[in-house]
Structures are given as C-alpha cells and as structure tokens.
Amino acid sequence: MFDFEEELKKLPNSPGVYLMHDAADTIIYVGKAVNLHNRVRSYFRKIVGRGPQIDKMVQQIARFEYIVTDSELEALVLENNLIKEYSPKYNTMLKDDKTYPYIKVTMGEEYPRILFSREMKKDRSKYFGPYTSAAAVKDTIDLINKLYQLRTCSRKLPRDIGLERPCLNYHIKQCLAPCQDYISQEAYRERVEQALDFLNGNYKPILRDLEAKMTRASESLEYEEAIRYRDLYNSVKSVAQKQKITDSDGEDKDVIALAKDETDAVVQVFFVRDGKLIGREHFYMTHVQGCDAAQILLDFVKQFYAGTPFIPRELMLQEEIADVEILEKWLSGRKGSRVYIRVPKKGAKEKLVELAAQNAHLVLSQDRERIKREEGRTIGAVKEIASLIGLERIDRMEAYDISNISGFANVGSMVVFEKGKAKRSDYRKFRIQSVSGPDDYACMREVLTRRFRHGMEEKEELERKQIDHEFGSFTKFPDLLLMDGGKGQVNIALQVLEELRLDIPVCGMVKDDNHRTRGLYYRNVEIPIDTHSEGFKLITRIQDEAHRFAIEYHRSLRSKAQVKSVLDEIPGVGPARRKALMKHFGSIDEIRAASVEKLCGVQEIPEHIAVQIHQFFEAQKSGE
C-alpha cells in the first residue's frame, strides 16, 4: 500500500519530473517542477479554485514517482519526452503527427542539387521552409530545375564525370550535364547561387531574363522556345504572387495564437520565413478543460518545438506564458543560436497575431458546425429512432441479414452501430449449420440463438473469473435489435429472446413493394417514418450495411467452393497445388484449356500430376 504521508516527506527540494499513477498503474499525469517537494505536495492540500479537472485527477492518484534532474532545463526536456511516450490522460496534448517538407540545397556537394526533404539535418546543406504543402514544394523544385537546369541524379561528381551517358534530362533541356563536363564547376555554382536567390524571394532577375529570352525567340521565329519561356515566366510570376510580405526585417518567426471552448482548443501557427508568410497550419489540443489560454500556449510550445526540426529566431505569442526564460534557453540550445519569445503589443506584429487568432476561431467554429452536423446524422438520428418507438435511450443497435442462392451456402451477418456509427470491429459472420434449404426464418433463428447463447456463456465465464467489464462483441448486448423484414422476422427474434430469457426490444424494418423501407414494425404496430429524416437515413444505412456484409461473405464462400468443387476432385491436387494453379492461370477455364506442357510450367506441378489434371478435364469434356 502506497503511504502518501511518508512518500511526501521524502520529496527532495530539487528540480525534476513527477509521474502520477492511477489504481491500474497507468500514468495519468506528468509534470515538471523547480522544487519537487513543494510542487508535488501542493496537489494533496485542500486548495480552493484550482479547477475541477485537477481535483478529478487527484482523486484518481494511487501513487506517484519522481525523477530528480540537475536543472529545470533538464526537467523540461524529460517532461516532454515522458508526455510523448505515455500520452497521459490529464496532460494537455498536441494532436499532431505531421512532418513538414523542406527544400534542401546540398551545398556540401561540389555540384549541388535541390531536393525535397522531410527532415532538417545538421549538415552543410541549406534548408528552406518548413512549408505546409508538399505538392507546392515539389512544384517549386521542378520549376527551379527547369529554370537553372541543375542536376537531379545521385551520381558522385566529379568522380563519375564521363563514366555514363547523359540522362534524359539533358536531352529535354532540363540539365546541363555536369556529369559529362559540359559545364564547368564555376558556371554550375553560379546557377546554384541564382537558384538560392530565387528561393530567398528575389524573382526580378529571372523574370527579366525569361522575358528577354521569350522576346528573342519570338523574333527569331522559334515559337516552341518562345512558348517554353512564356510558360516558365508565368510559373515564376505565380510563385512570386503567392509570397506575401509580412515584415520588413526579413526574420524567421512563427506567429502563434489560439481559440478554445469547453473541451477543445485550436492553435494557429503562421510560418514566416525571411519576412514572407510561406504557410499556416492549425493544431488541435485536447484535455484543455480548466486550462487558460496561457497554459495551453505553454504546453503547445513545449510539445510542438520538441518535435519540429526547425526553430525560428522568434516566437510571437498571443499571451504571456510562464517559464519564458527557461523555454528561450531550451529553444536556443536546440537551434544553436538565440531564440526570443515575445508578445507584440502594437503595430503590424500585433495585427499579425490577431489575424492568427481570427483564423483559429474560424477553424474552431467550422469544426463545431461539422461536429454538430455529424451528431445530427448519428446521435441525433438515434434519439429520433428512440423517440419514435418510445424507448428512453439507445446506444448500441445490432442488425442481421441472411444471404443465399437457392439454399446454397446459407450465411448470416451481424452489424453493429454504436451512437449512430458503424462499429466494424464488432461485426460478425455466421455460416449456417442446421439449415440446408432456402429457409430464411430458420437461418435467422440459428444466427440469433448462436449469437446470444455465445454472449451469455462469455458473460458467465467473466462472472466466474470476477471480471466486471464487458469483453468482445458478444458479451455486450444491444439496446435495440433491427431485423431486415417485418412481422415474420421480428417474431423469430422475439421467440429466440424469450427462450433465452432475454429482454431486448426488437424492431422490424418494413419494406414497400419496391423493396424500400417505409416504416418500422414494433410491438405489433407498423410505425410510419419520415423518409427525409436523419433517423430514416440511419436505418437505411444500417439495413444496407447488413445486406452488404452478408453478400460479401456469401460471395467469398461461393468463390472458394467453386475452386474446391472442381480441383479437389483431382487426385494429387491439394491446397498448395490448387493455389499455385489458380495463381498461375487465373481461372478454372484457363486450367481446363491448358495442355500438359503448360501445366508443367507451374513450379509446384510435376509431370505425372499435370497428366492427371489434363486427363481429368478431358474426361469431363467427353462426358458433357
């Protein structure tokens, strides 16, 4: 038993990280402290006004542990790593698995290349970005290579000069073939510098050059060349227009602001590079109940910049946050040069932060509307169905369908919807064992009996083992059974439930003469339903899903049976050889038409088996 009083006394007056565990020994919170003794003890005092979320977390703490560090900076780094590793329930979490694209110029090579990269290494290359669109980065690289005709190959130059013929890029005028020494290293480097100038946003020289070349080509009646230069000119102009000047100082900075509601927060980041807004991105933060904007921004900065390879010179924030000095020290260490965290109070910088905040509010508002629409389609539709048939609440619904062709391979399907959404992990298939002919009622009786009997047996086993939670799709019983039919199917279900002494509402989906659902059959009454309502649309989706799932299973069994019924009759052809034949020929008809020589071409088929297969099908033909 964890003795809180004793363990609290042992806490050192040192910086470090603490981890809170619940009764299942799951880590539910990770925090850092300048003084572990003071910080951890504060959770177990009666403090008014610290918020219901923290109170709820404290009630679940079964034990705590801590790790002492040499400094607060080390504690910050360790806290980030542990949050990332354990994703604790009560830590504000950044929902992000993005990696951002960069343009990489391999300045460490004697003949540099311009490449797409998703990581930023400490090498001799120059990096531009991060950008938010991978497609835009690839288009820009493609444009630069067309403009400056730089190499894209991985040949080691100058070592490999002249060893191989020039590639296609040389012949289509997209590379000057330094691999053949057709351009000197000095002239090639000059083109690389021009490309760097372009990436830094200086478009005027290349626009002037392209315009002059276009004019010369046109005057010389070289219209194809003129068109090529015109297209390049328009591409450069398009890129230039997309670059928005945001600041005159030409610095790299990230502008960060947020919007929040009771359960979620959206953080908007504007990426400014060399004074230009090159992109923006939004990020969702969860577990924000009881957290103010400053705390959410602090958690975002710690988590986001622990993972991103590029650290700008300046972070412009919407609000003042705690631990600024230690954060600046940490970020500066990661970047290798001084990083500043500032909150603009006036001028163009403040307006840019306000713009980021407006964008965050817009994203959150749109997301709220999307969630509202989705809830109407799901939870709202379920409430509508419950109200229609007079049930207090419905959480889980199960629907069943039978599929067969003239009684061949009878199968049943069980689909599950929870809170109006398909729960595919709980879907189940049944191959009918007791019914040989086309008797849908008997098939449904078998499916339902097996489903609920299995569930009851599993529940008894869990109770015997004193496990009090539901496990698997069979132990969890539905709040409503939906039958793909009217009175007949409903009565079958009710009989099965009565035999098993289960009390579960059963509702039939009644169809009209055109096989379209027209209403619900419940407690011997047909209830009409508005065909334009969300409840009706949900019932239709469930009905279609049960039908689709049954048909897919039946089709797979028919396919297997077709192969088995023919090939397995041939002596010497087992599962491995059957699979090899089907893989090689693709169909039974192709195998039937194959000669002995072609059959011997299958690696797993020896000659004597090939003869037997051929003779088998020849005998079939003569008997037809």
Provide a descriptive summary of the structure in words.
The protein has 624 residues and is α+β, with helices and mostly antiparallel strands. The chain has five domains: 4-91, 3-Layer(aba) Sandwich (GIY-YIG endonuclease), CATH 3.40.1440.10; 102-201, no CATH class; 253-371, Ribonuclease H-like superfamily/Ribonuclease H (Nucleotidyltransferase, domain 5); 382-558, UvrC, RNAse H endonuclease domain (Nucleotidyltransferase, domain 5, 2-Layer Sandwich); 568-623, 5' to 3' exonuclease, C-terminal subdomain (DNA polymerase, domain 1, Orthogonal Bundle), CATH 1.10.150. 46% of the residues lie in helices and 19% in strands. Strand 5 (102-105) and strand 6 (114-117) form a beta hairpin. Helix 14 packs parallel to helix 16. The longest helix is centred in the last third of the chain and has 34 residues, at 534-567. 29% of the residues are buried. The model is unreliable at 244-248 (pLDDT under 50).
